[in-house]
Design goal:
The chain has seven helices and ten strands. It is an alpha/beta fold. The strands form two sheets. An eight-stranded parallel beta sheet has the order 5-4-3-2-1-8-9-10, sandwiched between helices. Helix 2 links the parallel strand 1 and strand 2. It is globular. The N and C termini lie far apart (31 Å).
Length: 208
């Protein structure tokens, strides 16, 4: 099913998380590179709200799709919708199979590792579809200086408001060695607690 929905990624893939560092300027940089066909874009959770026509809108949780599917259908008519929760199919999202745990799934596996966040799963999706260079934006894995967990504030009460930042950081850091062993370059841009992945400037990375 995933193969029918998504191409093999030959360009760099930008995975846009909803951390507080993902602001409108970051969205403009990513959108300009997407218009120029230099990158593929995966919008994680609410980042679809400030991105133009991402290739994929990814959210792991069915309650998120229940709340956002109508807005996504209006803002992202040409995007693929994906979720690791099979119940999200009721809202129009395709299903991405996952297995419990972190790290990288075996090569050519028909699933990704689940981890504990949509952003982590979205990286696995990019690798599943052949990405050799992945640019992370908005993957802060920490609150902003004023305590915000997301660029938009906080999820409404009916959605998960738990933010295990340290777990998220460890999961992303855990990708560093296995990704390098496979020749996959993962670079994280912007303010972040992730320490073991390569750090870069977003504008420079999307224009390489």
């Amino acid at each position: 099913m995933i193969g029918a929905m998504l191409p093999i990624y030959e360009n760099a893939v930008v995975v846009c998380g909803s951390g507080p560092s993902f602001n409108k300027e970051a969205a403009r940089i990513v959108t300009a590179a997407r218009r120029a066909k230099r990158v593929h874009v995966i919008a994680v959770n609410d980042t679809y709200r400030i991105l133009e026509s991402p290739h994929v809108v990814y959210a792991a949780d069915e309650p998120w799709w229940r709340l956002h599917s109508r807005a996504v259908s209006q803002a992202c008519k040409d995007s693929a919708w994906l979720s690791s929760d099979v119940n999200s199919r009721a809202h129009g999202a395709g299903w991405l199979p996952t297995k419990p745990g972190a790290g990288l799934a075996p090569e050519r596996a028909p699933y990704v590792m689940r981890g504990t966040s949509s952003g982590f799963q979205a990286v696995g999706l990019a690798i599943m579809r052949g990405a050799r260079r992945i640019i992370l934006a908005g993957m802060d894995c920490q609150a902003s200086e004023d305590g915000a967990a997301h660029f938009f504030g906080e999820h409404p009460q009916q959605l998960n408001r738990f933010h295990p930042f340290e777990v998220w950081r460890e999961e992303f850091d855990g990708l560093a060695e296995p990704a390098r062993a496979r020749g996959i370059d993962i670079v994280v841009c912007g303010r972040t607690a992730i320490g073991k992945l390569r750090h870069g400037d977003l504008r420079e990375e999307v224009n390489k």
